[in-house]
Amino acid sequence: MTLRLAGIDCFYGNVQVLRGISLEVAPGEVLCLLGRNGAGKTTLLKTMIGLIKPRAGCITLDGRELTRLPAYGFARLGIAYVPQGRRLFAELTVEENLTIGLMARGSGDEARERALALFPALRSRLTQISGTLSGGEQEMLAIARALCLEPKLLLLDEPTEGLMPSMIQAILAAVRELKSQGVAIVLVEQRVESALSVADRIAFLETGMLRAIVRPEAVHADPALVQHYVGVGPGRR
Hints:
Layout: E1 3-12, E2 15-25, E3 30-34, H1 41-48, E4 56-61, E5 64-65, H2 71-76, E6 79-82, H3 94-105, H4 109-118, H5 135-147, E7 153-157, H6 165-180, E8 184-188, H7 192-198, E9 201-206, E10 209-214, H8 216-221, H9 224-229
Parallel strand pairs: 3-8, 3-9, 6-7, 7-8
Antiparallel strand pairs: 1-2, 1-4, 4-5, 9-10
Helix pairs in contact: 3-5, 4-5
């Protein structure tokens, strides 16, 4: 399932936030979006899931035009989104949050079991109110809920933000496993070293424009890329 964006322009009111974005992400590939705050990374993810409609350009999935499809249509086609801040139903249990994920695409218990296999720590928390989980457990639940859609494309916005190192490694391990299963992943990640450890390609955004798409080895060879577009060196964790 290859998602392609061509010439995407997006606005908030009269303010243009994405300018001529063209890129694609293929099955089993991790594309990491890097850029400073306000570069347009989250807006680009929201465009990929249909929450923001472009004023110009098109979005296709294996050649099928999606540009004007409502957001629920993207989800039904197997595109899942984990927003920054997780957006769980905090008053519901872990089990109930997963059930909502299953309902979004009519998935069965097999999808739930695969999600729990990826995050086994959640099995002992199924009856716990999700708002009482630790930050790392909440992020695991947010991803597991998205996986209940059985996605072919997974969009992750800052999944390691504010987490302790052990939880960061658990999230990155899940990304690697999903990649090995053929899931395409678009990852927004400000921990540069974490991004480089899982990404196949790095896309640098600046003021709503796509400035470069490179392989991780190119970033290691030229740290000035990260310093210029993100403002930190690749050693940031």
